Structures are given as C-alpha cells and as structure tokens.
Amino acid sequence: MDIKDTRGIKDTRGITNRGEYDVVVVGGGIAGVAAAVAAARGGANTIIIEKTVAFGGLATIGLISWYEPLCDHLGTQMTAGIPEELLKLSIAYGFDTLADDWKNGKRPELGKNCKYATFYSPSIFMMALDEYLEGNGVSIRVDTLATFPVMEDTVCRGVVVESVSGREFFGAKVVIDATGDASVMHRAGVPCVVGENYFSSMAQGFTYEAAKKYVEKKDANTMSIWMKAGSNMNGVGQQGHKMYRGDDAEEVTEFLLKTRRATFEKIKDTDRNERDISRLPMMPTFRTIRHIIGEYEFSGNDENVRFKDTVGSCGDFRKKGKHYHIPYSCMYNKGFGNLLAAGRIVCCDREGWEITRVIPVAALTGEAAGTAAAIAACENKAVCEIDIEKLQSTLSANGVLFVD
Fold it and tell me: What is the model's pTM?
C-alpha cells in the first residue's frame, strides 16, 4: 500500500458501549467541573471525561493559579454559587492570599487588597477537585480523549473516546462541551470562530531567597514563584514570536516545545544550587483557541445589560467597577438541540472573550450549563426550549448572584 494514500487505511476495532448518561461533560477544566457538579446536583446521571490525568485545566495543570476576582474590585460581590465554592475549595487545604474581610463574609474597605481573589496551590487544588466531584456523585473518566461526537442529523447521541481500554462510546441525552477548544462542537458541525494566542507560558519554582522568606514568615505562597516565558496577557514580550491558533496538533507541539525551551534558557545558566523548577505546565497555556457561534454574541459592550435569559452576573477581572450579565443564549446554537458550551468557548466578541475565559466566569457558565442540561435531560427538551425562568430560579436558589 502506498503510505501516502490513506484511503486504504481502515480502523476495524470495535467500540465498547459504556452505557447511557443523562449528561456527558467533555473537558475537566473549571467549567467542566462546575457543569458536572451542577448537573449531578440537578438529579442527572452525569459523567465527566478529561483527556489529561487531572482536573482544573489551566487553573491547575496550566499553573495559572490565581483565582480572579468574584467582585467588581470596588467591594461588590458579583459572582457566587459554584464559582465561590471553588474559590473556597482552592484554598481550603493550602495557602491563600485572600483578604480577611472576604474570608469573614464582610464587604472590604477599598484599598490594596479589596479584591475577592486569591493565589492558591495548584497541586492541592487539583487533588481537592477529585474529592469535590466524587462527593457530588459525578462519575469520572481521566486519561480519556473524546475523539468525536456521534451525530444523528443535528442531535448528538454521545461521544466516542480513546483510552487504554480502546475505543468506547458514552451515550448522552445532553452533551456539554467544556474542552476549552470547542472540539466537540466543532466536530459536531456547530459553526465556530478561531482565535489567536500569544507565545506565553509559565513554570513555578522557588529560589534560595524565597526559601529564606518561607522559613521567616511560614508562608507557603513565597515558595510558589511564577517563572514566566514569552508574553504577558497584553502581548508585552511577544516580539519575535508568532501568534498561535491552537487548533492544529503540529502547532500545539511547537508551542509546547518552544515555551519549555524559553523557560529552560532563562534558568539554565543561573546557580543550580539556588533555584529549582517545581512545576511545569502540563498543557498548552492557550486562552482563546475556538468559540462557538451561538444565538447571542456576548460583548464587552454589554456592560450593565440585564438579559431576559441571564444566568448570572460577573465583573471584568482586568477593570474596576464593571458589571455584566451572561446570557444563556451565548451557550448554544439552536440548530443543535442537545449541545451546550461552557467556559471559554461560549459565543462572544473579542472583548467578551477576555471577560468569559477566566476562572470565575468559566465556573459561572459551567454551573449554568450543568443546571440547564439536567433540566433538559429530565424533561426531554432541547436545550434552547427549557423554561428560562425555571433555570434562573434554580440557579438563584443555588446561590448564583444576579447583580445589576
């Protein structure tokens, strides 16, 4: 056979059917975790499928270990529910930098540390997420790659995955794409937009000086120094590097190798006895790979707009005093009746993408997607046909905030 001619290559392996679930969540980042927990709490038989060996995505194995503000930077809490649960979980067993007022349930005075935000240990948070998912009755699969959705016209009957067990099929009434790159949606035929990403990565490590501070202050945060390579989130340091889309395997490989090399170059000629790299990111640190084209495009211009189908409020982690509501209609394309998007793949413009891609808002859209999926599965409805008031009242009863 001519190896250049792939027409003669056939995969004759069987597919093991792993049964039917009410909700299958693909992707175990923060959005996926929130979606799975919300769906399970809503009474849905739920499984979460993660391609790596741990949960948390960029927030843990990506080492972006700052839980962005749940507030508007001016003392008003904008986001609660599962996003707040996850913030508290991130610091429940490890260090934190959270202001005492927020810890004690008080509105903080304006000042240097008034943000409802914290640094945390990504490794400890990672382990806590295992317990969180199991404790909420979510079935778990890790080290399992969802390869494609099984479509019947525009309805997704489930997903085929690859693992050490071979090819498997997980049936579903509703599928939530929380992959961060919209791979399920894209392969199902949902129209999508591809973004661009800076050459940017970071490791975590410590130095001799940091170790001395740790001994003096007994503060573990001093031992988790970010060692950045390439650009910051605003493109400073991007010079000489190309932008990366993140939707091509060869490009992803190039990005990972080059960012690791950049980190290595920064440290390899320094004194080897005075520093160490304790953690390297175990995934490409892309922020904006691909998002869906949904029924509404959430925009950075939607400040102070309260949508009829709002699923909760948030701020803008970069700016003071910003108030936003996230519409449910940015989380689905009504041509695909049982697919929902969660996290940084919801429909948005460029500024909207910056607002929705971070931990608190990813958890917010995850909770909304999981809650909606449970309703849709229970009532045998398309995700776009569920009662919005029922969705909103359920979210509100579960602690989600709707702050104008």
Answer: 0.96
